[in-house]
Amino acid sequence: MRKRAAERIVHIALELACGVLIGFTLGLIGGGGSILAVPLMVYVVGVENAHVAIGTSAMAVAVNALAGLVSHARAGTVKWKCAGIFAPCGVAGAFIGAAFGKAVNGEKLLLCFALLMVVVGVLMLRGRRNKGEAGAACNRQNMPRVMMAGAGTGVLSGFFGIGGGFLIVPALIACTRMPILNAVGTSLVAVAALGASTALSYMLSGYVDWVMGLLFVAGGVIGSFLGTRAAKRLSGSGPALTTFFACVIFTVAAYMIWKSLAAL
């Protein structure tokens, strides 16, 4: 009995710690929370069903993104017009992506997810020195690109059960040339919307573990606060932060590919 209680305490501590890491990453760079959430749930917490890990992580990331958004909104780093255009297009794409994602074998889905991580890591390294333009915003000229980027990101978000911040940040920078700190703050609107729509789709299919999700959220709120404060202090060290996070992505992706291939 005591052994089970001790194991449960360790399990809860792991879920809270993972939540803090996810929230911190979201607050720091506006993405990466969901790209880490799924492997953390599967390989650290021990969730056996990949679809449950995806659905639960989507719910937790959505709430954690809202926590980070509050801090960024207070700091004035959110481009609300861009968020209002990007997010609805992303939500529409997310429902389409989620419908396809649930029909794919869990292990194959994790393998595809890992391969996507590698691609994103390479793209992050290539654009790590892009500082952006301080006055950049959404306008008539770039609106079609913003809408298409939102829809495309939404499809990937729904398919893989991710908030998509690690895709949204570079997409916003590419479409509008806004600075990374503005892209981080703006992306959290879309991350919350995409995560919520993906979680709703998985929830309707019974793929959300609410107890585990709430523990991830509790840890994530703390992490989001810490990450946002760190983002303000380290905003001038964008290339170094991007390089570090890309290395984390490559490491996690390599582990996921190895585990997925071994299970096939």
Topology:
Elements: H1 2-29, H2 33-45, H3 50-75, H4 80-101, H5 106-126, H6 143-160, H7 165-176, H8 180-204, H9 210-233, H10 238-263
Helix pairs in contact: 1-2, 1-3, 1-8, 1-9, 2-3, 3-8, 3-9, 4-6, 4-8, 5-10, 6-7, 6-8, 7-8
Q: Can you characterise this structure?
A:
The protein has helices spanning 2-29, 33-45, 50-75, 80-101, 106-126, 143-160, 165-176, 180-204, 210-233, 238-263. With 264 residues, the protein is an all-alpha fold. The protein is globular, with a radius of gyration of 17 Å. The termini are far apart. The model has no long low-confidence stretch (mean pLDDT 80).
Low-pLDDT stretches are none
**Total strands:** 0
Task: Count helical runs.
Answer: 10
Structural class: mainly alpha
Mass-distribution shape: globular
Taken as a percent bin, the fraction of beta residues is: under 5%
Question: Describe the biggest sheet?
Answer: none
Q: What radius of gyration results from the CA coordinates?
A: 17 Å
> How much helicity do the residues have?
over 70%
Overall mean confidence score, pLDDT: 80
- For the record, give the distance between the C-alpha atoms at the N and C termini, rounded to a whole number: 36 Å
Order of helices and strands: HHHHHHHHHH
Transmembrane segments: 12-38, 50-70, 108-125, 146-174, 180-200, 207-226, 238-258
Family: Belongs to the 4-toluene sulfonate uptake permease (TSUP) (TC 2.A.102) family.
Membrane topology: Multi-pass membrane protein
Keywords: Cell membrane, Membrane, Transmembrane, Transmembrane helix
